[in-house]
Each structure stands twice: as C-alpha cells, then as structure tokens.
Amino acid sequence: MRFMVLMIPGDKTVETGKMPDEKAISAMMKYNEELAKAGVLLALDGLHPTSKGARIKFSGGKRTVVDGPFSEAREVIGGYWLWQVKSKEEAVEWAKRCPALEGDTLELRQVFEMSEFGPEVEKKEAAIVEKIGKQLDANKNRA
Fold first, then answer.
1. For a disulfide at 100, which of 38, 83, 104, 140, Cβ 3.0-4.6 Å?
2. What are the tens digits of pLDDT across the range 32-42?
C-alpha cells in the first residue's frame, strides 16, 4: 500500500522561503537515504512558500484564481514523501523516525489503488491507467 506523507512545519519559517540549517538538512537527507535503501521511498519533494503558489476555486461553474500567500492557511505543507509499505503501522513506524523539528507534524494519508474502485472500473480504466503510466515515465525523462 502507498501512503502520501505530508510535512506540516510547526513554525512559519517555511513561508519565508528560508532554508533549514545545514544540520537539519543533513539529518533529513540521512533519513531519506534510509527510506530509499529500505525500498519504502517512491518520491519526495520540498515545497516553496505559498507566496509562490496559487489556488483555483471552483464555484458556480466558474474558476477563480487566487495567488498566494494564503493567510488563512493554518497548516501549510512544507513537503511530502510517497512511500510504499506493507501496512499503516509500518508507515507510522517510519514517520516516527523522521528527524522533524520541534512542533512539526507529519500527516499520513493512504493513496487509493485502482483495485479499490471495483473490478468494473478497474477493467474499464486499465487501458487509460496504463497509458497515463507510460506518459508519467516519459515525463520523468523530460528536461
């Protein structure tokens, strides 16, 4: 099973764009290396502050673009991992090993697998999913 793991920083320095100190970066890189060696890590990235982002709101058939920063956002996501594990308990154990800073929070969310939508949807959408998978692989090789 796959889990999206969201890093929610305990302070607002993520919104300043200031990078963590060398010691924190080194500890996180070591942790990421452990995840990779264990075969758990599928993807990871840190995120720029919301001031560099945008939100698209859908209402009444219209799309409204709102540029960041998002002052009403109480819990800003600072980065994420995508993990492949055998159980939620295994994901929790890996999360507990994270060298997070004081006040940080990790949120674990299980990713839906196509099989969970039922055999009819899985069969019907298999060709589309395969096509998308091939395109994703091709996208990884783009400059």
1. 104
2. 999 999 999 99
